[in-house]
Amino acid sequence: MAISSLPPSSIFQALTCRKGSKIDVHARTDGLHSQYNVTDADGVCGVFLVWSGSNLIQSQNLMSQCVPASRTLTAGLERRDYCIH
Predict the structure, then answer these.
(1) Does residue 59 surpass a pLDDT of 60?
(2) How confident is the model at residue 9 (pLDDT cuts 50, 70, 90)?
(3) pTM (2 decimals)?
(4) What domain count does the chain have?
(5) Is 70 strand, coil or helix?
(6) pLDDT digits (tens, 9 = 90+) for 23-48
(7) Smallest Cα–Cα separation from 47: which of 4, 82, 6, 79?
(8) Can you tell me whether residue 61 is helix, strand or coil?
(9) Of the candidates 15, 27, 55, 80, which lies 20 to 30 Å from 68 by C-alpha distance?
(10) pLDDT surpasses 80 at 61
(11) With contact defined as beta carbons under 8 Å apart, do 6 and 41 qualify?
(12) CA separation, residue 66 to residues 23, 58, 62 (Å)
């Protein structure tokens, strides 16, 4: 997917966790536009998420509703958020 095809007010979020753990976000999660799972050569798993709401504040709210549940499932989670204009 090209960035130009993303809805306005999207937030790109990168999450990684320790080796052997997995991050899984249900495809029907409210506000989740796209999800891309990745694993590096060392076995560290990560996911790139694109959140989209009607505006940037709503996108942030939708994203924040999902992250706490993921944190309780995966110790060692790292989070990076980026706004896409």
Answers:
(1) yes
(2) confident
(3) 0.70
(4) 1
(5) helix
(6) 778 778 889 998 888 888 888 888 88
(7) 79
(8) helix
(9) 55
(10) yes
(11) no
(12) 12, 13, 7
